[in-house]
Structure formats: C-alpha cells, structure tokens
Amino acid sequence: MKVLQRYLASEIIKSVLFVLIAFLSLFAFFDLISELQSVGKGGYKLQHAFLYILLGMPGYAYELIPIAALIGTIYVLAQLASRSEFTIMRVSSMSTAMAAGILAKIGLLFVVATLVFGEFISPKASEFAEKLKLRVQGTSVSQEFRSGLWAKDVLRENGLSGKPIGSRFLNVKDVNTNGQLQQLRVYEFDLNFRMTALIEASHADYQGNNIWRLAEVSETRLPPVQSQSGSITDMATGLSTRTMPNMDMVSEITPNILAVLFADPDRMSAVDLAAYARHLEENKQRSERYEIAFWKKIFYPFAVFVMMALALPFAYLHFRSGGVSLKIFSGIMIGVSFQLINNLFSHLGMLNTWPPFATAVLPSLIYLLAAVGGLWWVERR
C-alpha cells in the first residue's frame, strides 16, 4: 500500500503543479494586458508592471490550489481508469475508503501549501505590490477619496484600558507608503457625541505600542457643556488653543489596521482580518465583510479535501462512459462553479446578514455532500 501511495502521490503532485502553473500563466497574461494601461503613469514602467504581476501570483496560487488539486486528481484517476490500473488496484483489495484515505494524505500537502500562501506569502506580497505601484506612480490610496481617509476609535480613561470616555474620528489627507500620516485632523467627542477637541498636525509617525507622534500640532479644546441651554457664545468664550512641536497620541489605530487600505479582504491574513473585525465591532461599525473573509480564510485550505473527494468518483467511470478530456472538462466546470458559489455566498451573507461562520462553510459543505453522493452512486453501480 505504501508503494501505491507513493505512486499516486508522485503522479498527482506532478499533475496538480502542471495545472497550477498553466492557470497562473493564464492569469498573469490577463493581468499584463490590464496593467499595460497603467504603464507610463508617473514613473510606472514595464518592469514595474512585471514585478507587480509577479507579486500578485501568490494570491492567485492560494485561490487556485484547490481547483488545481481537483483537475489534477481527476486527470490522474481518469488515466488510471482508462488503462485499467485502477481496476487492478480495486481487485488487489483497495476499497473506496482506502482510496479516499490515500487521497486525503496526498491532499494534506496541498492544504498546507494553501495555508502558507494564504496566511503568510500572499498578504505580504499583495501589500508590497500595492505600495510599490502607488510609490512609483506618485499617488496614494487617499487620493481616491475627496475628503481623505477616515478612521474611528474609542477614547478610554487610561489610553488603551479603562472604561470608554468618548470617541475619536481621524481624518488623514494622505498616507505615505511608509505608513506616515499627512495632514492629520482628530475630532474628539464625549459619550454624548458633543465635540470636546480638535487636533491638527502636519504629519504623524507610528512609534510602536499604539503611540503616534504628531508633529507641528495645533490643539483646540472646547469647554464642557454644563446644560443644554448653553449658548454658542458661552462655548466660544471658553475655547483654548495651544500649539506644540510634538505630541504623542495613544490610539487603537495602528499601521496594521491602516494596511487594510492596501489590500483586499480576501488577500489579508486571518490574523489581520480578526484584528480589524474586532476593531470595527468595538467602534460599532459593520464588520460582516471581514468576519466572512476571516472564516473563509480558516476553512478554504480544507476545500482541497472536498475537491479531491469530488475527483474520486471519476476513477470508477470506465473509459467508455466518457473520455479523459470530458472528465477534465467536467472537473474544470466543477472548480469554476465552486469559486462562483463561494463568492456568491459571501455576497448573499452580507446582504442577508447570515452568520459569517455558516456563510463560509456552506459552499464546501454542499460540495462535500455532492462528493459523498457521487461515491454512493458509483458504489451502487
């Protein structure tokens, strides 16, 4: 059985790698056509476009490994069936459960690869690619918004701990690719959403430990309102303004949270998604999109097992039931439909406020039931 497992593993790994490389080449070609429109903007040249496309490949690899595992496994099993090798294996006491166990062991390698690409390689590569493009073109993310970028966090008694005493809105005119905030405005409010302070700074640099160092600071403090009958004139007379060369600001907003601006949620790591979703919840903002992306990031690598389970029934179809090319085409259609349904459920989950966990798991569960049904059908035959 070990010899058989090594034989199948060798054939399937080679086949899956071939399919994956073919898909990546196709996506790289489409991306190159798209990026040619940006060549010539600022200092963005053809070599930058090639590098940008190359840095995007880990993200595609993460998305395509389960589909490549499906198509590659179908190809190998169809070839074995056409040469009657799989029939000989069955005659040699290999049951369906044993075949599934062998495929599961092989699939574990692709699960680990998907996890590594999705959690470690793709997020860093995608973030670096976006920053590279913005830096070379001389643009920034914030230029897409007329009023700049906005973020919100909670004011607490002891910086990051203690009970909430208000809320704070940050408006940034520009965010450099190195994480520096340009032309920062901070609006502070009490628990009743009465404005208590306006802080303006020319720029801010992150010092670590949730501390931002603001430079060329102008701080305007508003007096507390004693009663609802207080007039605007009374408030104006109590205004206090001071200027400082530097000021430290403790905030829940960190460069990791700001990095969300440079990446699509589907290209972020599960750790960053969890942190940003928690930040949104604490600030009473909608976080469904990031929670769904988080659970998809957790369960998507295990879709490899589902795809390989779907491939197993093809080994029981004799050559006269359909050629190898037809089986491969069927595998491609199954893989494409899985991606479409996976993305469809993400949008439906946000629109209908479905539980993020269920939204992420249901597509894989549906296809797993289809795989079990396919195996049951071929076993009865």
Roughly how many Å is the radius of gyration? 27 Å
Helix content: 55-70%
Order of helices and strands, N to C? HHHHEEEEEHEHHHHHH
Beta-strand portion reads 15-25%
Low-confidence stretches: 229-233
Class by helix and strand content?
A: alpha+beta
Average residue-wise pLDDT: 89
Strand order of the largest sheet: 1-2-3-4-5-6
Number of strands: 6
Give the number of domains: 2
Biggest sheet character: 6 strands, antiparallel
Number of helices: 11
Outline the secondary-structure elements:
Blueprint: H1 2-35, H2 46-82, H3 85-91, H4 96-137, E1 149-158, E2 161-175, E3 181-190, E4 195-208, E5 211-221, H5 232-237, E6 240-250, H6 255-258, H7 270-282, H8 288-299, H9 303-311, H10 324-352, H11 356-380
Helix pairs in contact: 1-2, 2-4, 2-9, 2-10, 4-9, 7-8, 8-11, 9-11, 10-11
